[in-house]
Protein: ABC transporter ATP-binding protein
Amino acid sequence: MLEADGVVKRYQTGGETLTALKGIDLAIEPGEFLSVMGPSGSGKSTLLNLLGLLDTPTEGVVTLDGTDVTTFSDRERTDARKRTIGFVFQNFYLISTLTAVENVEVPRLLDRDPETRARARDLLQRVGLGDRLDHRPDQLSGGQKQRVAIARALVNEPRVVLADEPTGNLDRATGRTVLEQFREVCGEGVAVVAVTHDNVVTEYTDRDVTLVDGELFEGPFREVDRKMREGTLERPGGASPAAESASADLGPGQRKGDTDGSDP
Ligand SMILES: Nc1ncnc2c1ncn2[C@@H]1O[C@H](COP(=O)(O)OP(=O)(O)OP(=O)(O)O)[C@@H](O)[C@H]1O
Structure:
């Protein structure tokens, strides 16, 4: 549905060229919950910006439903983004003077659609905030604010929600309620891609990938890091049996393949 093929991103700063992404191949399927992990500076935000049609790659293509969006004009890209992508951020970015329901309506304000209020209400009910419609952000907890942000991300009926450290400002328990919400979103066929440092996220995802110095590897960071230390990490594209044992240390009830059920 949303795909990066051979994506390279270089930044020019002064006379220097920095290659932030070094040939990324990544396909996101409808309804999939994917985490993107990796050390600071490894290229996570850069990748999220490219997948979110906020930026264009230096080389390679990003395709949306098979259409190469890298050749789009700014206007076409903005339209495609609005139709297909919702964003959730660590700091929520709610407007403090607007109520919860008004915040959810924000992405649709220019459309002047009379149905928007009803849809915003419905979305807030779905994220468990039916009794907080008229509360302003300062009257909501962190987890409630993030659920308002999720409802806002869904108001344009996106195909994919891109989340940047969605649990970064939340305590463990609250983070879990937000992650459960994302699972429900995925259950409706919307893909969720979360950039995160939070290992708890990987208990909820279908798949985890890790960026290291602009290269993408299958598996959560802790596993990729361990393989790097052991010298057993396969380069991208070299699908190996080792890479397939990625579900070995998952908790119960997870969805990352049912192959290694007997592993400790
Ligand atoms: N606009 C820019 N101009 C120049 N260099 C940039 C720009 N944006 C990012 N970079 C560089 O590209 C590399 C990847 O940055 P990016 O922000 O994607 O990393 P990240 O994994 O999201 O890091 P963090 O976890 O700290 O947010 C870094 O070396 C960063 O300094």
Q: What stands out?
A: Residues 239-254, 258-264 have pLDDT under 50 and may be disordered. The beta strands are 2-13, 16-28, 33-37, 59-64, 67-68, 85-89, 160-164, 191-195, 207-212, 215-218.
